[in-house]
Amino acid sequence: MKHATFDFDANVTAFAGAQTYLPALDLSLVDSTLQGAVDALLLPGKRKAFFINAHCCNVMHRDRAYMKAVRCADVLLPDGIGVDLAARMTGQRLAGNLNGTDLIPALLTQAAKAGKSVYLFGGTPGTADAAAATLIQRIPDLQVAGTRDGFAGAQNTDAVIADINASGAHIVLVALGVPLQENWIDQHAHKLDAQLVTGVGAALDFLAGNVSRAPVWVRRARSEWIWRLAQEPRRLARRYLAGNLTFLARAGVATLRRVSAASAMRRTLDVTVAGSACVALAPVLALTAIAIKADSPGPVLFKQTRIGHNGQPFTIFKFRSMVQDAKARRAALLATSDRDGICFKSKSDPRITKVGKVIRRLSIDELPQILNVLRGDMAIVGPRPALPDEVAAYPARAMQRLSVKQGITGMWQVSGRADIAFDEMIDMDLTYARSRTIMLDLTLIARTFRAVLSGRGAH
Length: 459
Known about the structure:
single chain; 459 residues; phosphotransferase activity, for other substituted phosphate groups; alpha/beta; two-stranded antiparallel ribbon; Polymer biosynthesis protein, WecB/TagA/CpsF family
């Protein structure tokens, strides 16, 4: 079984190589934006890439050959709302919906710029040719090395392999449908010279115009499956209605079996503490909001992108403690940081408002993060979430602090907060990641109250 991993290779841009393990599927899938996935797929080396959706997971449970092919693939790409819902069962959020119909054109656009060619294999007679014509029209610089249908053209496997290799194609798109295309790739990809071989399902049909895509607003609502069902109800009813329910039920049972008791207890602790804090601190939250509005112009809440578990970005909430143009003035103040290393902190930061100094001193500015905890972005206890540019500058060792969910409080927060040097902070976070227990979390929560009252390192 593969567990959650993160590619810390500094040469891979924007977490392009990130993968996350989904207990509900017992699979590790790419966790990246579409552009990040394209970058990763076009890196040097040979790889097999498959798209995984709810239907694929259902097929896995009745087709052992297909299950083997999926588990032997180099790259698995999450496709569709079903997989996203399976991830959310364990509080995970995938960075993107990497369906083939969107990803393949983006992949080939970038491949064309790099001088890489593509071979289209599959579909009814004429489909691959029509898809090739559409791609050339959309991507004028694209080199289509060859095409072959998935019926008579697929009968002689040796001839197919010889034709693909003779074409010199760098990328091979196989459109034989699930599970035939994945099984074919698993059995024959090692005989191909191409760098990337991937199963693309109905992508060639979409490109050829055999099947129409849903409007953009339907796709954004993650409801393209409803559009497809309306087009072909007789053929797709079983897959999308009974199949989706079966998938979600199976994913739910698998999640309950695979999520550890400690994880369940930790999430229960997070929700209990955060929910209780919302109620108990309601007067403080309201008075703080009023004071911020009265003190300076701007919104009450400050929202910022931070990097969380496994390198996944999320929006963090804080009470605004600085002037509105604080971000624009940050670069000019970096040299005044009181902390050694990457993370910027300054006791005399001129951007901090009068109310901001008070709520920072009492750590009230951090209280809106209880919303992040309830949403599942953060935990009560864990390493503090860093800015994207700070993570980009991390040494490889520091990236290990992303192996656990980021938190409101933790070991370095109760030991001096901003007075702790960067390297020492990393040591503490890595120690926590290696040895965290429910009892340790409870101890750190208790020590947080003392740290807040002392005010040490709060600025």
